[in-house]
Amino acid sequence: MSQPPLSPVEARVLAVLFEKQRTTPDIYPLTVNALIAGCNQKSSRHPVMDLVESDVQAALASLKGRTLVMESYGASGRVLRYAHNLPKWLGVGEGTSALLAMLMLRGPQTAAELRANADRLYQFADLSAVEAYLDEMASRKEAALAVRLPRQPGARESRWAHLLCGEPASDAPSVPPARTADDAAALRAELAQLREEVMELRATVERLCAELGIEHRRSES
After folding, report:
1. Residue 36 in contact with residue 54, Cβ under 8 Å?
2. Structural contact between residues 20 and 28, judged by C-beta atoms closer than 8 angstroms
3. 32 — phi, psi (to 5°)?
4. Are β-strands 160-162 and 69-72 bridged in parallel, bridged antiparallel, or unpaired?
5. How big is the chain by its Cα radius of gyration, in Å?
6. What is the DSSP code string of 110-157?
7. What does DSSP assign to residue 91?
8. Whole-prediction pTM value?
9. By three-state DSSP, how is residue 199 classified?
């Protein structure tokens, strides 16, 4: 991203604004209380968050500074409300914005999962349309917006992650590094030293047994 990455809280706030604009347009733009409730939903969210008003207010202030969020008093003129500016800020269409919002709300997903989960935000013609959007997001000349993650063991499809918060943390199982020639040489030297110490200990035991007149049975090596 040419812009500084978003924080996880900023991404959640932005995605909730995009989601609620389409799923509950009658209450959009959102008040701070509605935003808090949307951010802390237990369903359709990963990870589940437990944000307080100060968290959301700080995120809103940062997003306003980057023109990603706009504020107004709405029709009532009494309660401050917030709207997003995601498509215009990124210079993308509604389909790309919907996929980004869903990735910010639910974390990495396969193309099939994204099509199903984003159904209320944008109507994709078919799975190949979602895949085309994702490929375009990953190959943008300005700055990539999404990345295909390494396929997990046993998984049939690769998952995708957004890049608005920077490179995603890898959740692949750690693999011990392969041993180098130097490692093998060091192990052989250590083994030789241990064998020498064992031989010295045996000699000491045999000498002590002889001095004390104790019969010593040497174990097979």
Report:
1. no
2. yes
3. -60, -40
4. unpaired
5. 30
6. -HHHHHHHTTTT---SSHHHHHHHHHHHHS-SS---EEEPPPPTT-SS
7. T
8. 0.75
9. helix
**Phi and psi of 83, rounded to 5°?**
-130, 155
The structural architecture, per CATH, of the domain 8-162 is Orthogonal Bundle (1.10)
Q: Are strands 146-148 and 160-162 parallel, antiparallel or unpaired?
A: antiparallel
71: which DSSP letter?
Answer: E
The CATH 1.10.10.10 portion of the chain extends over 8-162
Please enumerate in sequence order all residues whose Cβ is within 8 A of that of 148, keeping only pairs 6 or more positions apart, or say none: 134, 138, 158, 159, 160
Per run of 10 residues, the mean pLDDT along the chain (length 221 residues) is 86 98 96 98 97 98 97 82 97 97 98 97 97 97 94 93 91 45 67 76 80 68 49
Six-digit token string for 120: 């209320």
Q: Is the dihedral of CA 62, 66, 68, 70 positive or negative?
A: positive
